[in-house]
């Protein structure tokens, strides 16, 4: 037991460095926020209208822990249609409180104390807390800018040991925007199969892919389905962050384990949120409208960051983040972030929170409006010009 009485599994969970930026930014009134990974627009009207109608008709109750049966049936059709993943809606898909809940529950259903979890770096920092609280150890696998931060199958294979239980993939990636091509995923699938380990794939940003690239789900390979858990979310694609609804699919015995864990934690996802998810699936045209909006903002942000001295942006293939390399200062990424906040009240995220190999980068979100992107990058330019003055 820890000296302060808190359980060791909680003490092992690091606080997110992203939260530090949010808290610091909240101290300023005139903030240009390029840090938060949340769409700036509200949930589309067709979804809100459908929820209003169905809630008034009585959709305000407990549901099965796995989620409403009609929603799970809709999810199974979506997975077959868009991801080429065939699942039994009764036993191989489960509705969760966002992708965060799905990831936490999946990792705790797969990882025992002492297990190693291989994750390509840079990676979303919350994976740290999920793995640490389960008693596992993360083994980072560095990716390179010259490869678009796409993970190397050979490096993944080299990182696997007798203690490896799980490989975590995130495509499209937060923070880099990397989209893992099908050919690379097929090579990774061979590595996973040969090593006899599990694969957890975070596909939260699956609909936000640009420049004629395509998202590919590794679980669509029948040979990999029985050792793969796939996580999806409504938050980013449909601007539904506050509804807290996602879903997870995989082999029935793992989904049942996740169901048991969820039964003892959140019981089930709120029924109005499940109704919202149903309405989103009934409005697929919204996905392209939202994707096109983010694509325009992506182009705007990359173009403007390209004129900031001492900063070299990576053109993202997916998601809604730009990973930009620090090339004109010897300050570490956190110090640069603090200077941006203190000097010009612009909020971005230091690369260091995404792993040691990302120390020389910043993450910027273009989930905000064009005016904020323009204002924020103007403020950044003034700070970076001061570095060389």
UniProtKB/TrEMBL annotation:
One of its GO terms (biological process) is amino acid metabolic process. This is Aminotransferase. SUPFAM superfamilies: PLP-dependent transferases. Belongs to the class-I pyridoxal-phosphate-dependent aminotransferase family. It comes from the Archaea. Transmembrane segments: none annotated. GO terms for molecular function: pyridoxal phosphate binding; transaminase activity. Its cofactor is pyridoxal 5'-phosphate. PANTHER family: ASPARTATE AMINOTRANSFERASE. The keyword Transferase applies. It holds the Pfam family Aminotran_1_2. Residues 30-376 form the Aminotransferase class I/classII large domain. Homodimer. Keywords: Aminotransferase, Pyridoxal phosphate, Transferase. Its EC number is 2.6.1.-.
């Amino acid at each position: 037991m820890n000296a302060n009485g808190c359980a060791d599994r909680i003490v092992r969970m690091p606080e997110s460095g992203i939260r530090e930026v949010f808290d610091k930014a909240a101290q300023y009134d005139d903030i240009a926020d390029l840090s938060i990974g949340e769409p700036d627009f509200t949930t589309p009207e067709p979804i809100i209208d459908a929820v209003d109608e169905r809630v008034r008709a009585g959709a305000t109750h407990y549901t099965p822990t796995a989620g409403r049966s009609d929603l799970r049936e809709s999810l199974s059709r979506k997975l077959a249609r868009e991801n080429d993943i065939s699942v039994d809606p009764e036993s191989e898909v489960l509705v969760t409180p966002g992708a965060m809940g799905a990831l936490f529950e999946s990792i705790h259903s797969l990882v025992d104390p002492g297990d190693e979890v291989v994750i390509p770096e840079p990676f979303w920092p919350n994976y740290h807390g999920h793995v640490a609280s389960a008693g596992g150890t993360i083994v980072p696998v560095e990716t390179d800018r010259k490869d678009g931060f796409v993970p190397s199958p050979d490096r993944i294979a080299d990182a696997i040991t007798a203690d490896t239980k799980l490989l975590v993939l995130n495509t499209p990636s937060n923070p880099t925007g990397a989209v893992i091509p099908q050919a690379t995923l097929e090579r990774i699938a061979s590595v996973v199969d040969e090593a006899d380990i599990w694969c957890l794939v975070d596909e939260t940003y699956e609909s936000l892919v640009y420049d004629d690239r395509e998202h590919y789900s590794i679980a669509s390979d029948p040979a990999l389905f029985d050792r793969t858990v796939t996580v999806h979310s409504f938050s980013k694609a449909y601007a539904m962050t506050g509804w807290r609804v996602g879903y997870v699919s995989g082999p029935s015995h793992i989904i049942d384990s996740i169901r048991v864990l969820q039964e003892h934690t959140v019981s089930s996802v709120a029924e109005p949120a499940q109704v919202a998810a149903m309405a989103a699936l009934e409005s697929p045209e919204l996905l392209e409208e939202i994707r096109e909006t983010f694509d325009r903002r992506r182009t705007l942000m990359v173009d403007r960051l390209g004129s900031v001295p001492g900063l070299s942006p990576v053109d993202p293939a997916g998601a809604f983040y730009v990973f930009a390399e620090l090339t004109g200062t010897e300050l570490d990424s956190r110090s640069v972030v603090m200077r941006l906040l203190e000097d010009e009240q612009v909020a971005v995220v230091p690369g260091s929170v995404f792993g040691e190999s990302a120390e020389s980068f910043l993450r910027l979100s273009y989930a905000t409006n064009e005016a904020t992107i323009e204002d924020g990058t103007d403020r950044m330019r003034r700070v970076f010009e001061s570095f060389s003055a």
